[in-house]
Amino acid sequence: MESSLAEALGPQAAVSRSTVSRICEAIGGEFTAWSTRSLAEVDLDYLYLDGTCFRYHPGARAEPVLVAYGITTTGGPVFLGLAPAASEGHDPWFDFLADLTSRGLRSPVLVITDGAAGLVSAVEHAFPAAVRQRCLVHRARNVLAKVPVHAQAEVKAAYWQIFDDIQLPPGQGAVDEAAQRAAAFAARYEHSYPAAVACLTSTLAELTVHLRFPVEHWQRIRHTNLLERTFGETRRRTKVIGRLPGERSCLKLVWAVLDRASRGWRGLTYTPAGARLLQDLRRELFTPPADPTISKPVTTAA
Questions:
Q1: Helix (H, G, I), strand (E, B), or coil: what is residue 148?
Q2: Is there a domain that residue 21 lies in?
Q3: Residue pair 81/66 in contact by the 8 Å Cβ criterion
Q4: Is the residue at 215 inside a domain?
Q5: Distance between CA 139 and CA 127 in Å, rounded?
Q6: Strand, coil or helix: what is 87?
Q7: Same domain, yes or no, for 117 and 248?
């Protein structure tokens, strides 16, 4: 508490134990109310899921905290959920998503995640009609990990050229343009860095899903960077503690930091054309076809 207050009030920001206890008790009550609130009134277009690790059990390894936030159908950001987990496997993620849906959260149109297999399978089970965008930033790291250090700047620039500045309207044409650029990337590097090329091309369909959505949203729905940056702030807050006293203390602190940060999150601008496109995508995904042999119109790994 003193470390946090000192940033604003200086070295005189000393607080008594009783004051700290009252603050923690108040935060605990607010967190409990927040984590059990109804989500029935939340209508999402986009759902972002990610996790970060903290050490909050004596002698144990760092353990994940799972986080969800979304963008509503009116473009507003909403911090949805926070929960501890023993791992980022299928079961913890599925339980986390099941809690959100049990409190009334309906399926988004698009879910943005990294490529963790447990998270992907949990999303497929929890929101079977939604489509999924794989985080471009996470995948860029995976690609660059297979490239020598001296070539990483060049390959990184070439990677982003696949997805940046596509001038076509949303839809299959934009996806095809990215695929053509990826093919050029592969032709350029397949002999020098075949593992990096395979890392990209094997998941290209998951990386281009955002190109079917409104152009004005592309930059924000192709990665989970907002959560990554907020996790950095959370880790900075907890660094001075070393090891948190326990799971409940960890969750309260992480929630308090994320809740405060979420008040400054920017939403998305919805143009009439973008809103119509999202309505069309929602109708196509969530309205069962008359002919059961007709497949889902937007094909992704989710």
A1: coil
A2: no
A3: yes
A4: yes
A5: 23
A6: coil
A7: yes
**Cα–Cα distance for residue pair 265/152, rounded to 1 Å:** 31
Query: What amino acid is encoded at 174 in this protein?
Result: A
Separation between Cα atoms, residue 45 and residue 106, nearest integer Å: 10
Residue 280: pLDDT band by 50, 70, 90 thresholds?
Answer: very high
H-type helices in the chain, by residue range? 2-9, 17-35, 90-102, 117-126, 136-144, 152-163, 172-189, 194-201, 204-207, 218-221, 225-239, 247-262, 272-286
How many folded domains does the chain comprise?
2
Do residues 85 and 48 both lie within one domain?
yes
Those residues with Cβ within 8 angstroms of residue 111's Cβ, 6 or more apart along the chain or in another chain:
46, 47, 48, 49, 123, 127, 130, 131, 132, 133, 302
Considering Cα of 122, then 126, then 128, then 130, what sign does the dihedral take? negative
Q: Running DSSP on this structure, what letter comes out for residue 45?
A: E
Range of the domain at 208: 136-222
CB 213 within 8 A of CB 136: no
pTM comes to 0.84
Give me the mean pLDDT over the 261-274 stretch: 89
17 within domain boundaries: no
Cβ–Cβ < 8 Å for 32, 22: no
203 and 93, same structural domain? no
Reading the block at residue 152, the tokens are 């990483």
User: Can you tell me the distance from the alpha carbon of 194 to that of 146, in angstroms, rounded to the nearest whole number?
Assistant: 9
Task: Output the pLDDT for position 273.
Answer: 96
